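Take a specimen:
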Amino acid sequence: MSSSTGPSPLFVPLNPSPRLVAQMTGLSLRQSELEVSQQINLKRMLRRIRASRRMALSGSPRSLRHRHRKPVMPTLQLPGALVPDHSEDADEWRDEEASVERMDIFMDISDDPRPSELHERAARLFNQVFAPEPAVRGSQVRVRRLSGAMTNCVFMMTIDPVPSVPSSRAPKMLMSTRQYAKGSGHTGKHTTPLPKKYLLRVYGTGVDEFLSRTKELYWLSQLTSLGFGPQLYGIFGNGRLEEFLESTTLTKDDIRHPSTSKHIARRMCELHSLVSYYRPYGDVGASSHPGVDLSGRPELWANVDSWLRLVHNKWSLIRRTCDANPQCAEILDNWPRLEQAAARLRRYIGRANAPVVFAHDDLQYGNILRLEHTGELVVVDFEYAGYNYRGFDIANHFCEWTADYHHPDHPHLLNESLYPDVTQREGFLRTYVKAKAFLDANMRADAEVVESDSDRLVDLRAIRLSEDRIRDEVAALDREVAFFVPASHLHWGIWGLLQACSSEIDFDYVGYAAQRLSIFLRQVADLEE
C-alpha cells in the first residue's frame, strides 16, 4: 500500500479519457479504462434512482401516507405504496407496485419428462404468461438446463420463430428490458415481437419452507424498477419466467482476478447504497407489508432464528438423514453447544454496532453474470436479499472464494486456504471504500433534483481521498468483516441441514452442513469477548 498522504483523485465527474485518468492517478491505462467504465456505471445507477424518485413523488401530495394505483393487467399484488412520515425529507420513498402476471399452474419436472414433453409444458406456461398471437406450440420451444443453481432448477428457454404479443400490452412488459431497447420494434399496427430467449426458474422442492418468496418477489420488483438485474415477466406456482441476459456466469477463478474482484466490490457497494433510498421503516415495517419485514432487522438473525426452529421441528428426520456422516452426527449429538455458540456470536456482533445495508447475502460466483456486449457485471438471484449487516455480505462473498461447486468429486467442500489473503482483501475493500465515498457524496438528491422534469444527468461531486483515510477505512472494514466470517458458516450450515432433508438436487448437503458448522464452532471458540 502506498505511504503517500497526498489526495487521490477519484471518480472525476466529467468522464475524462482513460489516458487522462492514468496521468492523474498513476494507474495503468488498462486500470484507468476500468475506472472510467465503472464511473459511468455508478452515474447510471444514480440516474435511475433519481428518476425513480421523481416518478414516486410527482403528483402525489406528501401528506398522503398510502397511495395505490390501479393495476394495468391481472397482477400479483405486491405491497403497495407507503411513505414514511417525515415529509420534509427529500429522501422519502414510495414502493413501486409490480404488475406481474401470476398463473395458478405448476411447472412439474419431478417426473424427469422427455424433451418433447418438457417443451410442451414450457409452451403452455409461456402462453399463459404472454398470451402471444398465435399461441406458441411445443415444437417451437427448446429448453436447456443451465448450471450454477443450488436451490432452483434453471433453464434457458428459446422460442423460434419469435412470437408476437398485442402491441397494447407490449410496452408494459418489455419497454424496460434490454432486448426491447435494442430495437425489437413493431412489426405491424397490432403486434410486437417478443424476445427469443428467456430464463425459466423452477423452485426446488421444500425450499419455500425456509425461504420467503413473497420477500424475494417484493425486492425483485423494487430492483427491476431501478434497472437492476433481469426483468421479471411472470410468476407461476413453483417458479418464474425472467429476461434472459446474454452473458457468461463467473467462475471460481474469475472472482479471484484483481480487476474482476474490484468490479464486484463496486456492484456490491451499489446494492448496499440502496439503503439510503429504501430506508428501513423501524418497528412499523415489521407488519406494514405481509411477508416482507421492512423494519431493518438483519436477515442474518431472522434466518438463523427461523431455521433453528425448523431444525427442532424436523429433528428426527435430520438425525436419520445426517447420522451416516460422523462429523455431522457429532454436531447433532452436541447441538446445545452449537446454539450456545450462536448466542455468543450474536452478543459479539451486537456490541460491534455494525452498519445495516441492503445486502444480497448470497454473492457467490454463480450469481454474478458478465454481459457479453459490455463486460458489465450483473448480480442475479435475490432469494436471500434484504436488510442485513454490511460485514456479513462481504464476509460471505469472501467465503465463497473457497468454494468449487463444479468440482468433479467434492463440490460440497470448501478449501479454507483459498480465503482471500491480506492483499486480495485490500484490493476489494479499497475499491469498496472509494466507491462508497463517491456514492455517499452523490446519493442524496436535492428536492429540486427529485422533483425536476429534466432528464439531464446532474453534475456529480468529485471525491478526493487521502491515502491515510483510505488505509484507515480499509483496515476498519477488514476488522468488521472478520467477525462475520463465522456468521456466514453458521447461516449456511443450518441451511444445509434443512436442504439435506428436502432438496432433490444432487449435492451432498449433509457434508456441506457438517463442514460449515464445524468451521463455525472453531472460529467462535477463537473469539475474544
